[in-house]
Structure formats: structure tokens, C-alpha cells
């Protein structure tokens, strides 16, 4: 029977020479060199980060895309409106096999796209009698009437254009919906919608959930991400804008998004998370797994790492 190897007892005592080493001196030199390199490289290359994408920049760059996205929030077809937990109950949300994890958590960040993205921001606009009347008409109408208005506008919105500062859609029987979409677009282009979405629940806030959800429902942000190779299908989690090296340590996480079944799954986020948790647990228990924990000793890789030590024995 082979005796178990005890590295703290069975390893032979080092009897070779010693050399003085000043760790404080070496650490100080390393800190100074890295600091100087960081400053120099920052001055030469500057920051690779782009300016923040806002609803204002989006609506000024592609007003039709913004207006159509605003309509999708109103008619309930946007990604946010149909997402499910934690924003609403429109779907079960992310599932891990038979486990509806998102549904169990519930709608903890409730978002009503009609109210939060369209009606409430428009109510914040001051001194606009036509809009005030339109909002009153909307408020007094039945759900069936509202649905009919939105349906008529949606049917004609495929031919939407933007000209002379106005959203142009040729439609009738749409009630105040054309006014809502046009005024919301003008509000977005002025920058007021960015602020209205952030301060709906208080004057001082840093909660950008609603502006980010609104942005993600349109195609503008996605097109910018694709241009900079930041999509999930482009290893975007570990990339930086401007083709700069990014978070390379995330390669294992983002790798799974490139392979099936994760690359084609609607539940990829929670599935990849579950897989990474499993791999993390396995890594945590490596020292306790028989056979696996013996690989370094049996492969004798330690003799390669400490070759100078074993050469002088």
C-alpha cells in the first residue's frame, strides 16, 4: 500500500543558498513604474469609451425609430412590455429547465410601458392645451376605445416618416394617439424625456432602469452595439468599444453564449449562470475530489515549477 504524500513533512528540507530580497523596495518600484505607464498611455491613447447613449441622442439621430418604439410601448408589443418578471407578468421570464426562477421572484421592478413610458412623461409637459385635452380624452375613454385607437395608428405606422419636426402618419380614427407619439418624440429630442423617466419617483435619483429599458426596445442601441462588436453573439461581454481589449477574464462566461444550446435559447442568461455556478462549485471542491486532487502530484508538475530546487538536491 502506497503511503500518502504529505507535502509539509515528506518534502526534503532546502539546503541550498539564500539571497536577500526587499519586498517593500520591489513593490515600490513596481507601483511607480505601473503608475507612470498608466498615465503615459492614458495621455497618448485617451479613453476608448464612447459618450453615453441617451434618449435625446437616439431620437435626434433616428426619430422614426424612436417614434415606432414609443408606439410599441403604447400597443404592448415592445420587448419590455412582453418581458415578464421582474418588470411585469406578461410572460414567465427566464427559466432553468422546469424551474421558473424569474416568475418565482415576481415583478419586483414594476413597469407599465403605457403609463411609465408614454402617458406619465406627457403629463409632465407644462402649458400645452391640445396635449392636456388629448390626455383627458384618453383618460375618459374605455379600454376598448383606447385599443381601437392604438390599433388604427399601428396599422398605418409602417409608413411613418419624419418631416419638418413632425412625425407623419396618415391615419384616421386614432384619437389622441398621433398627438401622443408626436409630442413624445419632440419631448425626447429636447432631452426632457430622459429627465422625466429618471425622476418619476423622486427629484433626486440615480435609477436609470426605465430610460435603459426604453433604449433597449429600439434598434438604435442594438445597431451601435453591433458596430462596436458588443453583442452577445460577438463575444461582447469581454469587448471594449473602439476595438480596445476589454474584460478578458470573462471569456469563460461569454464563451457559452457562442455555442448551442445556449446560443439559440431564450433562457440563455439563466442557463449560463447555472452552468457557471456548477463549475464554480466544482472548482471550490477540487481539493476534496479523489483522483482529481492528485493530478498535480502524480503528473509531477511541481518538479517543473520548482526545478531549481530539485536540481540542487
Would you write up a description of this structure?
This protein has a two-stranded antiparallel ribbon. It has a domain at 55-224. The protein has 313 residues and is mostly helical. The model has no long low-confidence stretch (mean pLDDT 89). It contains 17 helices and 2 strands.
Total of DSSP H or I helical runs spanning 4+ residues: 17
Note the beta-strand portion. Answer: under 5%
Strand order of the largest sheet: 1-2
Q: How many strands in all?
A: 2
Q: Which helices and strands appear, and what pairs or packs with what?
A:
Elements: H1 7-10, H2 23-45, H3 55-61, H4 63-75, H5 101-105, H6 113-123, H7 129-140, H8 143-156, E1 161-163, E2 166-168, H9 177-190, H10 192-198, H11 209-217, H12 220-227, H13 251-255, H14 268-284, H15 295-298, H16 301-305, H17 307-311
Antiparallel strand pairs: 1-2
Helix pairs in contact: 3-4, 3-9, 4-6, 4-9, 6-9, 7-9
Amino acid at each position: 500500500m502506497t503511503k500518502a504524500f504529505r507535502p509539509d513533512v515528506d518534502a526534503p528540507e532546502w539546503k541550498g543558498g539564500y539571497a536577500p530580497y526587499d519586498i517593500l523596495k520591489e513593490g515600490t518600484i513596481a507601483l511607480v513604474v505601473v503608475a507612470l505607464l498608466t498615465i503615459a498611455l492614458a495621455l497618448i491613447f485617451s479613453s476608448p469609451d464612447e459618450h453615453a447613449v441617451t434618449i435625446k441622442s437616439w431620437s435626434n439621430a433616428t426619430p422614426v425609430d424612436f417614434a415606432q418604439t414609443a408606439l410599441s410601448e403604447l400597443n404592448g408589443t415592445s420587448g419590455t412590455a412582453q418581458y415578464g418578471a421582474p418588470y411585469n407578468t406578461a410572460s414567465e421570464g427566464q427559466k432553468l429547465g422546469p424551474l421558473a426562477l424569474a416568475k418565482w421572484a415576481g415583478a419586483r421592478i414594476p413597469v407599465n410601458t403605457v403609463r411609465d413610458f408614454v402617458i406619465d412623461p406627457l403629463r409632465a409637459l407644462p402649458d400645452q392645451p391640445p396635449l392636456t385635452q388629448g390626455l383627458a380624452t384618453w383618460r375618459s375613454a374605455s379600454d376598448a376605445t383606447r385599443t381601437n385607437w392604438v390599433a388604427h395608428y399601428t396599422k398605418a405606422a409602417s409608413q411613418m416618416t419624419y418631416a419638418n419636426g413632425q412625425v407623419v402618419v396618415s391615419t384616421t380614427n386614432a384619437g389622441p394617439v398621433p398627438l401622443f407619439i408626436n409630442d413624445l418624440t419632440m419631448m425626447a429630442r429636447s432631452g426632457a424625456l430622459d429627465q422625466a423617466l429618471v425622476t418619476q419617483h423622486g427629484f433626486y435619483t440615480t435609477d436609470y432602469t426605465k430610460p435603459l429599458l426604453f433604449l433597449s426596445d429600439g434598434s438604435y442601441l442594438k445597431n451601435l452595439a453591433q458596430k462596436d462588436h458588443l453583442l452577445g453573439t460577438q463575444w461582447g461581454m469581454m469587448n471594449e468599444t473602439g476595438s480596445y481589449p476589454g474584460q478578458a477574464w470573462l471569456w469563460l462566461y461569454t464563451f457559452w453564449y457562442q455555442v448551442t444550446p445556449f446560443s439559440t435559447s431564450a433562457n440563455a442568461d439563466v442557463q449560463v449562470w447555472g452552468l457557471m455556478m456548477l463549475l464554480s462549485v466544482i472548482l471550490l471542491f477540487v481539493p476534496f475530489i479523489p483522483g482529481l486532487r492528485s493530478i498535480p502530484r502524480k503528473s509531477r508538475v511541481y518538479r517543473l515549477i520548482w526545478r531549481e530546487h530539485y536540481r540542487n538536491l
